[in-house]
Amino acid sequence: MSDENIPRRGLMLVLSSPSGAGKTTLSRRLLQSDPGIVMSVSATTRAPRPNEIDGQDYFFVTPAKFDEMVAANEFLEHATVFGNMYGTPRGPVMAALEAGKDVLFDIDWQGTQQLKQQARDDMASVFVVPPSKAELERRLRIRAQDSEAVVRERMAKANNELSHWAEYDYLLMNDDIQHAMGKLEEILRVER
Ligand code: 5GP
What we know:
The protein is α/β, with parallel strands linked by helices. The protein is 42% helix and 21% strand. It has helices at 23-33, 63-71, 90-98, 109-119, 133-143, 148-162, 177-191, and strands spanning 12-16, 37-39, 43-44, 59-60, 75-81, 84-89, 102-106, 123-129, 170-173. Guanosine-5'-monophosphate (5GP) is lined by residues 16, 19, 42, 46, 77, 79, 81, 86-88, 106-108, 110-111.
């Protein structure tokens, strides 16, 4: 992470949540419905899931390449999540903000804290929560892309992630996707 501050241009909209709260669906819909906002594509050392596309969902890189990017100060923020490294490449974000675009980030609470130190007023952070822990577990299971061990691990870690909700500007309950989408669009309107 560098000490440089990001000059005020486009808005940085951060979405965080435990896995399974519906954040991915919300970000996809927002990107489709709003041409003024672009997604920040993170780099990760995690293995791609079957439906994921390199360069679109993530830049899938080796740990050695990730370390190289850290050393070259190529990340706005980076953190270890579930044993894998994740980072936000600086270049595309800066280019989008300078072009007056808003940028959407799907990052965890550690990354949000790092971004906040640089962005200050140019950033709005939203923490997406499921209606209940039982519903979160149900969603993780029907997703069925992760192994049972991963589901259990993520469920356990959800409790820790949920404890960071108060560090966010907005708390968004995803009870119903249409309803949550409406609230997210309203947050963006207000922040703009
Ligand atoms: P997943 O492996 O399920 O795609 O993501 C796991 C977690 O890593 C999610 O909470 C997601 O928000 C977070 N994450 C994804 N990309 C980044 C990033 O660039 N930086 C940080 N700090 N977290 C990230």
